[in-house]
Design goal:
Length: about 350
């Protein structure tokens, strides 16, 4: 009997094929098993109805599935749903379903906790506990898609990595998870419907360019001068705007992809016309679209939501320069599911439970 079980979802098809052949099975069995795992999203080996019992027993003995499960969910008055996902080893991460009249978006996580400590974000107050695996990233999409079908009667239209964690600090697993979400062997969702949001890790943005990724990239900018950005985002000390601009230009040259700038607008901090002018200047580096995001207060936070008239004036100035601008109104605020509010409660409870154990 194996003393240490391996995570079967960490095996490539080639590695799985080799493992199956050692059991005296034909190669095509590995492809069947791979399809059960990545296309049908099985939660246990016993669900593989066309695989022989001896093979199933061997897999149970030597491998495990690192499945996550929905341990809690809350539904907002605007029909947004926040899910707490529990991992096989007892951690909690979170994801959100955001419906509109024309589409459903899944906001998913890449890590449990976060190491970046952005001042406006609840997740940043948590410790960085661990990276999510490709299987756990895939599971969030699989489970949220099933929930979207049940609750809204439609499939997911968009997937955004804007939940807990910094995706580019879990680079390998994030890209492997996206591969399973987008590939024909997996959920076969178009990569153009996937957006990875980063706080700005310049060298990893350049690596995305070298890897010529097909998904969309969003930068959490929030201020277009270094003094202000460093005040709210520690990452700017090591990845300043000049360094980021160079990385973004490189990424665009390699992928020919328009980049999204996310700009949370705070009252009396980054909501002036002067701030808008600085943002417009920074937008000259690459083709962009701008999402101006309404701030969502967190417990004990030092920032306030910008006044509607200031937000509108900010957006209109940018639009006058022929920039593509969207003002994003918050969804799910009543259940702490809005941007920047994730992991305020569930993850803290889970961490306490693990400490008590």
């Amino acid at each position: 009997m194996s003393l240490t079980k391996l995570n079967i979802r960490n095996l490539s098809l080639e590695e799985l094929t080799a493992a199956i052949e050692t059991l005296g099975e034909k190669k095509f069995r590995a492809k069947q098993i791979y399809e059960w795992i990545w296309k049908k999203g099985i939660r246990s080996f016993s669900e593989m109805s066309n695989i022989s019992k001896p093979v199933l027993a061997a897999m149970e003995e030597n491998y495990f599935l690192d499945c996550i499960y929905i341990s809690d969910q809350q539904k907002s008055k605007d029909k947004t749903i926040k899910c707490a996902f529990k991992t096989h080893d007892g951690f909690i991460t979170e994801g959100v379903l955001i419906p509109t009249a024309t589409r459903v978006t899944a906001c998913i996580s890449s890590q449990v906790g976060c190491s970046l400590a952005c001042k406006f974000c609840a997740t940043g107050r948590l410790k960085m506990m661990r990276n999510l695996t490709p299987g756990e990233i895939y599971d969030q999409v699989f489970l949220l898609n099933n929930l979207a079908e049940k609750e809204y009667g439609q499939h997911l239209n968009n997937i955004v990595f804007m939940g807990m964690g910094e995706p580019l600090l879990n680079y390998k697993n994030t890209l492997a998870g996206i591969d399973k979400i987008c590939s024909e062997e997996g959920l076969h969702i178009s990569s153009k419907r996937v957006t990875v949001s980063t706080a700005g890790i310049a060298k990893m943005i350049q690596r995305l360019g070298d890897d010529q990724v097909k998904f969309n990239l969003a930068l959490s900018l929030h201020a277009a001068n270094d003094a202000k950005r460093s005040q709210i985002m520690e990452i700017n000390e090591s990845n300043n705007l000049e360094t980021l601009a160079e990385a973004l230009r490189y990424f665009h040259e390699k992928t020919d992809t328009r980049i999204t700038f996310e700009y949370i607008i705070f009252r009396d901090f980054n909501d002036s016309l002067e701030d808008a002018k600085e943002l417009a200047t920074f937008c000259k580096n690459v083709p962009v679209k701008i999402n101006i995001i309404e701030y969502n207060p967190i417990d004990g936070g030092e920032f306030k939501q910008a006044l509607p008239e200031k937000t509108d004036a900010f957006a209109k100035y940018l639009e006058s320069l022929n920039l593509v601008v969207n003002v994003r109104r918050s969804r799910g605020k009543d259940i702490d599911a809005a941007c920047g509010q994730l992991a305020n409660k569930n993850a803290a409870v889970a961490l306490k439970e693990r400490v008590l154990k």
